[in-house]
Amino acid sequence: MDGKGWKPEYGISAEGIELLGYLEALPRDARREFLQEVAAKCRAAGYLSLHDDLRAAVEAAGDQVDAVSDAVATGRVIPLFRKRG
Q1: Spatial contact of 84 and 58, defined as CB atoms under 8 Å apart
Q2: What is the 3-state secondary structure (H, E, C) of the chain?
Q3: How confident is the model at residue 72, as a pLDDT?
């Protein structure tokens, strides 16, 4: 831990730690309301949280890549993820 209660390997930036300090100071109901608003905006913009299951997002991205590669001839690339089948 970094002395502030956050493990660096979790990938939380210095700005994120600062923001969390302010959020923790809010009453519980205000935090919940703020969380719901931020989550809705982030999901609408296509962002994921640290708590989301990335498997579904990777599969969806793979489906999009497959659709594009079917429509357009592209160069060969090294696959980052392999489909399990």
Answers
A1: no
A2: CCCCCCCHHHCCCHHHHHHHHHHHHCCHHHHHHHHHHHHHHHHHCCCCCCCCCHHHHHHHHHHHHHHHHHHCCCCCCCCCCCCCC
A3: 58
Q: Is the pTM of this model over 0.70?
A: no
Q: Measured between alpha carbons, how far is 52 from 10 in angstroms, rounded to an integer?
A: 14
Alpha carbon distance 6, 18 (integer Å): 11
Identity of residue 56: A
- Give the mean model confidence (pLDDT) for residues 23-32: 94
Dihedral sign, Cα of residue 73, residue 78, residue 58, residue 48: negative
CA angle 66, 70, 76 (to 5 degrees): 75
